[in-house]
Design goal:
Number of helices: 2
Helix content: under 10%
Radius of gyration: 25 Å
Distance between the termini: 78 Å
Number of domains: 3
Strand content: 35-45%
Mean pLDDT: 90
Largest sheet: 23 strands, parallel
Length: 538
């Protein structure tokens, strides 16, 4: 008997036994299925608009295969959970989308009962190669679900991709969805609250083994709108390797991209990325985060976006504003625990209570963070500093060619050391920055043999703690707008650029491997002295 025949016979036997046990029916590959909440019927074939299914419960009974499409009729409303099964393959994913004219189809998860994975309106569990697009998703029970230490809430999400299978999963794309009004918890029953909210992708531990077996490869969260959600706007968390880096980094998830999303009025953190290698967070907009906090918990504070237990991550071309300071944090961008080879570049932050950038180091692992060519306007007016170095210094940190504007009347500190005494022998540098400090905030920065501070331009009020810098310029940098009348909005970013007659032009120190461009895309030489600040003026 040939091997092929034995394999075929075994497959038939398994399929037959599955049918006897009530397994979900398998479908033909590359088939389009239609769902119509108003005119469909679950007894229909589902393979044409005239024969559309009616409910998501019907969809959930089926096992889909590579190339299948599940299309929901525009304007439809389903107050139930979408939890389809099956996996696509590379180059031929399974797609959830829409058909017909009208508004986005709505999936409302308000009645979805609690489950350990989380009560999600849309749940993809232990699957690969799915694309979800074009949906409107909400999940608000109408009750206070924030939770307290004495009475935890239940974790809820709009869209949740969950993998506890012990097998790696790949090719998940969540694109162009509108996710809003999700009442997730801050103190949760049996769950990390950071893993619930608008859109969440979670790799979980399998049978108590922190071996990374459930990790993801190639997750993309693109061009979604997320509003009025708690706790987290968008979260990627790989907990399948445990909290610490107790296993090889090769076991972490890989190739996570979070790009082009618009987040507004988030109760906790805007974007979280934890437990992955080779990551990109770019062109996202976060407007107001940190609206809720629960004192006495391990996570009372929030930031606009942060990375942790991550390697080779780039955060670029984002805008973050309106992040609240609750007990701790409140920054736009955060390079947090066990982050290696991180780059924060070409970002715009403004009006964040806790500052622009936090780097967390000290006794924690992590190293080689680069913060360059960013613009900060009126950040840190309530707490911390524009640049906050927390719990010690992240080894080999480089902060260069950033521009900071602090308006009159603010108490923002340009640099600040949080939770430590500033004694430092780790290598770090602060160079080529333009700081316009028209406020009254003082300076704090580490001191020690590893410190390099040079070629900065500091203009305005010279307050206590301003760093010694043999190449410092204190003259007016000649920003394009009058320095006492700051412009507003993203369109005004160019106003913080420099006139060609600025003393900052051509007076910086050459920095190797500088990205070779400024905030605006103009080239920056690696051999000729650059302009100080985020704008390579000539």
């Amino acid at each position: 008997m040939s091997r092929n025949f034995r394999n075929w016979a075994m497959a038939v036997a398994l399929a037959s036994s599955g049918a006897l046990l009530g397994a979900a029916p398998a479908l033909a590959a590359n088939t389009t299925y239609y769902v119509d909440a108003a005119a469909g019927a679950d007894a229909n074939a589902g393979t044409s608009q005239a024969e559309a299914w009616k409910t998501l419960a019907k969809v959930n009974t089926m096992t889909f295969t590579a190339g299948d499409k599940i299309l929901l009729r525009a304007g439809g409303l389903w107050v139930e959970q979408l939890k389809p099964k099956g996996s696509g393959v590379s180059g031929n994913p399974i797609t959830i989308g829409t058909y017909g004219d009208g508004p986005r189809p709505i999936i409302d998860g308000r009645n979805v009962p609690y489950a350990p994975a989380g009560a999600a309106a849309v749940l993809l569990q232990s699957v690969s190669y799915w694309t979800v697009s074009g949906l409107e998703v909400t999940n608000d029970t109408g009750t206070n679900n924030v939770g307290t230490v004495a009475s935890p809430g239940k974790n809820r999400s709009g869209i949740l991709v969950y993998n506890p299978s012990g097998k790696g999963k790949s090719g998940i794309i969540i694109r162009d969805n509108y996710v809003h009004d999700v009442n997730g918890c801050f103190v949760c029953t049996g769950a990390n609250p950071q893993t619930n909210g608008g859109i969440a992708v979670l790799a979980d531990v399998m049978n108590g083994l922190n071996n990374g077996a459930s990790s993801f490869n190639g997750v993309q969260i693109l061009d979604n709108v997320v509003e009025r959600v708690g706790r987290t706007g968008i979260a990627f968390n790989d907990y399948s390797t445990g909290f610490l880096l107790a296993v090889s980094q090769d076991a972490l998830s890989k190739n996570v991209t979070i790009a082009g999303n618009r987040l507004k009025d988030v109760e906790g953190d805007g974007i979280i990325l934890s437990g992955s290698i080779d990551n990109l967070i770019e062109r996202n907009r976060i407007d107001t985060a940190g609206l809720v906090t629960v004192s006495g918990t391990t996570q009372p504070g929030t930031v606009g976006m942060f990375i942790a237990k991550a390697t080779n991550s780039i955060i670029q071309f984002n805008e973050v504003s309106g992040v609240r300071h609750n007990v701790v944090d409140g920054q736009a961008y955060d390079v947090d625990l066990w982050a290696y080879n991180s780059i924060v570049q070409y970002n715009y932050s403004h009006d964040n209570e806790g500052g622009a950038v936090m780097l967390m180091g000290g006794n924690f692992s992590g190293s080689n963070a680069t913060v360059r060519y960013n613009l900060s306007v009126n950040d840190a007016f309530a707490a911390n500093g524009v640049f906050t170095l927390s719990s010690g210094l992240l080894r080999d940190s480089k902060i260069y060619n950033n521009t900071v504007y602090i308006a009159p009347g603010l108490t923002s500190r340009p640099t600040y050391q949080l939770g430590w005494d500033g004694n430092n022998n780790n290598t770090w540098s602060f160079q080529n920055n333009v700081i316009v400090n028209l406020g009254t905030g003082t300076w704090e920065q580490p001191k020690g043999s590893g410190t390099t501070i040079s070629h900065n331009l500091i203009f305005g009020n010279h307050t206590a703690g301003e760093p010694v810098d043999a190449y410092k310029i204190t003259a007016d940098p000649q920003m394009i707008f009058p320095p006492t009348v700051a412009p507003e909005g993203l369109d005004a970013v160019a106003g913080y650029g420099l006139a060609s007659s600025s003393p900052a032009v051509g007076s910086g120190v050459v920095i190797v491997d500088n990205g070779e461009r400024d905030y605006f895309g103009q080239p920056v030489s690696q051999v000729v002295a650059p302009t100080r600040g985020f704008h390579e003026a000539h």
